[in-house]
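User: I've been going back and forth on whether these two constructs are worth ordering. Before I decide, could you fold them both?

Assistant: Sure. I'll take them in the order you sent them. The first construct and its structure tokens:
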Amino acid sequence: MQIYLPIAEISVNAFVLLGLGGAVGFLSGMFGVGGGFLMTPLLIFTGIPPAVAVGTEAVQIVATSMSGVLAHWRRKAVDFKMAGVLLAGGAVGSIIGVLIFSALRSEGQIDLFISLAYVVFLGVIGALMMVESVRAIQASRSGKSVSSRKPGTHGWIHGLPFKVRFRRSRLYISAIPPLLIGLSVGILAAIMGVGGGFIMVPAMIYLLRMPTNVVVGTSLFQIMFVTGLAAIMHATLNQTVDIVLAMLLLVGGVLGAQVGVRVGHKLRGEQLRALLALMVIAVCLRLAWDLVATPDDLFTVMIGSGL
């Protein structure tokens, strides 16, 4: 069934969008990521303009994250205090990111920048996560401890000021690293149309040393509010939010997130990280190929651009 998207100005199959929303929602609930790192490229692959894909996906991320948070909250797997610190940095980052997005769009460079940013970030994060996950799985099979931190040891984070006790995560660390992580993720959420979970989840596990079972719900809670702010700013400043597209993605995404949470709790932490790393690398390779492959249409005529 074809449906017209007024902001994207193209017609697409509604069932394809519902399926994409459900699949990405499932991954969101299972891995604790907003799903934008997959959905935004997938929307671009289906012909949605990158700027519209970024702005609209932020709306879909809010709903799927909210659905996932509720499921994890019922399991008492959300550190709300840590999420609040991450959110403080993320709110500032979202504002900065939307302003950068507007500047790049006015210069006509936003589409290329989005694609290049995805290739770089997904490639680096995916490779690092895969290496660590493989080592953890091998250590687990050999009967060794998969933890990289020995009891009683402290990293450089413990030497920083402004320490806060996060009881749910069993941590007593400085608030500075979570604030900086939130700031970085907020900028990425606004520019790339992602929740930032593909960076936040590894950072919370490997840098902050949070337990994996708490990371997922906490990540989704922060993502929900940061992307909500980014979506509002994109709609008001850039007019790149297609409400019809967003509604179709929302319906599938909310349902998929509930199923993903249930599946995620049945898998080990290192298995979840390995699966997430594989998907990150796969999307990175596809985007990289699209950047270097010869397009079917060598020229594009822009109508109504005002130029």
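The second construct, handled the same way:
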Amino acid sequence: MILKPNCECCDKDLPPEAADARICTFECTFCADCVETRLNGACPNCGGNFTTRPVRPAKLLQKYPASEKRIYGTQPTCLEARSDHAG
């Protein structure tokens, strides 16, 4: 599993231990707030539902580190979310 570092919608940081990280079956990653308020519980990429992203045990992060590559959605609601977040 790839632990993406941010919400693909609003760009909120989601470190490996984030309790509010949500993923779909393809590991698209969003924060709980965006899932509930902007995405209506459906992944904008695949249409699937979300589940809480598992927390990787700290002792395994050195061998299996989280990704540093930030991913950004291009859906209008996500562009707006990033604009709101930046401003």
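Notes on the second construct follow. The chain has a mean pLDDT of 93. The longest strand covers residues 21-23.
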